[in-house]
User: Which sequence fits this backbone?
C-alpha cells in the first residue's frame, strides 16, 4: 500500500513495499519471466481500514483471475523480513516457497508458528481481504527497529537498507517461480514448517509431528532405562524435574510482567508508541531476567532461598494485577510460581531427574499443542526431539553424567538448538513482547532442555551470585528505558511533527 499513517513519512510502512515491487517488476521483465500475467497492485487507504484492497478484491474485474498473491508489509524500519502469513491450506505454497532459502538474498525466515499466532491477532493487512476469500499467497514483513513504526522517524535515512533488499529479493524470487511454475499452488493441507538458520526450511504434514513425538517417547524410555542403571532415578526425581520446568515458565511470566511495569509510561495517550521505542530495552531486561531464573534453578538457590523467591514472586503477582488490572493468566502463573517456590522438596536435586523431568514436561506440552494447535506444536516438539537425541547418546555412552564425553551431545545440542530457539525468541518478542514479555521464558525453558545436564547438581555459590547480578541488571535496564526514551519528550516530538505536517 502506498499510503501511510498521518504523521509519518512512511519510508518503511509501506514505501518499502512499493519500491521493492517496482524493482522486482523491472527485474522480472529483464529476466524475461513473462509466461504468466503479473498484476501489480498499489493499494490506497490500507491504514484507515484496508479500503483499497477491499475495493479491488471485491469489485475489480481482474480480481477473480488472480492465482497467487505476494503482499509486502512493515512494522518498524529494520530487521529480517519474515514470511508470516499464507492462505489457508498452505502445504503447496510452502513447498513452492521453501527453495527460496537458497535463492533469495539472506535466505528466508518463516514458521507456521508465526502464521498461527498472527491469525489470532486483531491486526490485519491488505492480504486479509483476499485471504478471507480463500486466495493463496504469502505475506512478508519486517518488524525490527520498532521505534520507526508510524512515526516521523520512518525516513529513508533511518530505514534498514538490508530489510529493503531482503523483502525485495524474496518478492522477486517468489514472483519469478510463480511466473514459471507449471501450476500455481492450489489450496492443500496445512503444514508444520520452520526455517533453520534461514537456509533450510523443514516442513511436514501436520500429522508428521506425531511421528516425531513417538520417536521422542521411545528415546525417553531408553534414556530412563539407562539412567536407572547408574543412578537412583525414580518417579519422584522425574516429577521434581518437571515441576522445575513449571516453576521456571510461570516464574518467568510473572517476573517479566513485573519488570514491564518499569517501562510502562504513566500517560495513557500514545503509550503503545512509547513502548515500541522502549522495546529493545524491554527485550534485554526480559532476557536477563529469564537468564537469572535459569541460574537460580541450576545453582540450587531455588531450594535454598525458597521463602525469598516465593514471597517475592507473590508480591510481584499482586503488584502486576493491581497496577495493570486483573489478568487471570498472570494470577495463575504467579500463584503457581509462588506455591512451587515455597513447597519444600519440590526443587529437583538430581541431574538426570532434572533433565528427564523437564524434557517430559516439554513432551507433554508438545502433545497438548499438537492436539489443540498443530501448526504451533513444532516450537515444543522439535526441540524435544533434539534433546532426546542428545539424551540417548549420553545415556548410551556415559550415563553417569560426570564424564566429558557424555556431555558432548548435550553441548552440541545446546549450540544448535539454543541458536535456533534464540532466533525464534527474538521474533516472538517482537511479536508479543510488548504485552507479554515473559513469553521469552518459554523459549528459555526450551533451551534448558539442552543445557540442564551440563551443570552439576550441587549448590553453586557463583551461579547464585551471577543470578543476582543478572536480576539487578534486568531491573536497571528496564528502568533505564525511561531515561533513554523519556515519554514526555516522545509525546512532545510526536505533537510537533503533527503540527508541522499540518
Ligand atoms: Zn502497512
Assistant:
Amino acid at each position: 500500500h502506498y499510503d501511510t499513517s498521518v504523521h509519518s513519512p512512511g519510508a518503511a510502512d509501506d514505501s518499502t513495499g512499493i519500491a521493492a515491487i517496482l524493482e522486482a517488476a523491472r527485474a522480472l521483465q529483464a529476466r524475461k519471466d513473462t509466461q504468466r500475467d503479473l498484476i501489480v497492485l498499489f493499494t490506497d487507504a490500507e491504514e484507515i481500514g484496508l479500503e483499497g484492497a477491499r475495493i479491488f478484491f471485491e469489485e475489480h474485474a481482474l480480481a477473480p483471475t488472480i492465482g497467487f498473491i505476494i503482499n509486502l508489509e512493515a512494522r518498524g524500519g529494520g530487521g529480517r523480513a519474515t514470511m508470516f502469513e499464507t492462505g489457508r491450506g498452505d502445504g503447496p505454497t510452502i513447498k513452492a516457497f521453501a527453495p527460496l532459502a537458497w535463492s533469495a538474498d539472506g535466505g528466508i525466515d518463516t514458521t507456521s508458528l508465526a502464521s498461527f499466532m498472527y491469525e489470532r491477532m486483531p491486526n490485519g493487512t491488505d492480504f486479509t481481504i483476499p485471504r478471507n476469500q480463500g486466495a493463496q499467497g504469502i505475506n512478508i514483513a519486517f518488524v525490527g527497529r520498532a521505534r520507526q513504526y508510524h512515526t516521523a522517524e520512518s525516513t529513508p535515512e533511518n530505514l534498514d537498507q538490508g530489510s529493503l533488499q531482503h523483502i525485495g529479493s524474496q518478492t522477486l524470487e517468489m514472483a519469478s517461480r510463480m511466473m514459471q511454475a507449471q501450476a500455481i499452488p492450489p489450496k492443500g493441507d496445512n503444514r508444520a514448517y520452520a526455517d533453520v538458520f534461514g537456509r533450510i526450511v523443514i516442513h511436514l504434514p501436520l500429522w508428521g509431528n506425531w511421528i516425531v513425538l513417538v520417536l521422542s517417547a521411545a528415546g525417553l524410555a531408553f534414556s530412563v532405562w539407562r539412567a536407572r542403571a547408574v543412578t537412583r532415578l525414580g518417579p519422584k526425581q522425574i516429577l521434581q524435574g518437571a515441576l522445575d520446568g513449571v516453576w521456571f515458565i510461570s516464574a518467568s511470566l510473572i517476573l517479566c510482567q513485573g519488570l514491564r511495569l518499569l517501562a510502562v509510561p504513566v500517560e495513557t495517550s500514545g503509550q503503545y508508541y512509547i513502548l515500541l521505542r522502549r522495546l529493545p530495552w524491554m527485550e534485554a531486561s526480559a532476557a536477563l531476567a529469564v537468564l537469572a531464573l535459569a541460574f537460580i534453578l541450576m545453582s540450587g538457590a531455588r531450594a535454598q532461598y525458597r521463602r525469598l523467591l516465593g514471597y517475592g514472586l507473590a508480591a510481584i503477582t499482586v503488584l502486576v494485577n493491581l497496577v495493570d488490572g486483573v489478568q487471570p493468566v498472570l494470577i495463575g502463573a504467579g500463584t503457581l510460581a509462588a506455591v512451587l517456590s515455597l513447597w519444600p522438596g519440590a526443587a529437583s536435586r538430581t541431574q538426570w531427574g532434572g533433565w528427564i523431568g523437564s524434557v517430559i514436561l516439554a513432551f507433554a506440552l508438545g502433545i497438548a499443542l499438537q492436539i489443540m494447535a498443530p501448526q504451533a506444536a513444532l516450537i515444543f516438539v522439535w526441540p524435544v526431539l533434539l534433546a532426546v537425541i542428545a539424551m540417548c547418546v549420553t545415556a548410551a555412552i556415559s550415563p553417569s553424567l560426570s564424564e566429558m564425553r557424555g556431555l558432548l551431545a548435550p553441548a552440541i545440542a545446546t549450540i544448535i538448538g539454543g541458536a535456533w530457539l534464540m532466533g525464534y525468541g527474538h521474533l516472538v518478542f517482537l511479536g508479543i513482547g510488548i504485552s507479554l514479555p515473559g513469553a521469552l521464558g518459554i523459549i528459555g525453558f526450551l533451551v534448558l532442555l539442552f543445557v540442564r545436564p551440563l551443570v552439576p547438581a550441587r549448590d553453586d555459590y557463583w551461579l547464585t551470585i551471577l543470578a543476582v547480578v543478572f536480576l539487578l541488571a534486568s531491573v536497571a535496564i528496564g528502568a533505564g528505558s525511561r531515561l533513554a526514551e523519556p515519554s514526555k519528550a516522545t509525546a512532545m516530538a510526536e505533537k510537533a511533527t503533527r503540527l508541522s505536517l499540518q
Q: What stands out?
A: Residues 1, 13-14, 46, 73 surround zinc ion (CB under 6 Å).
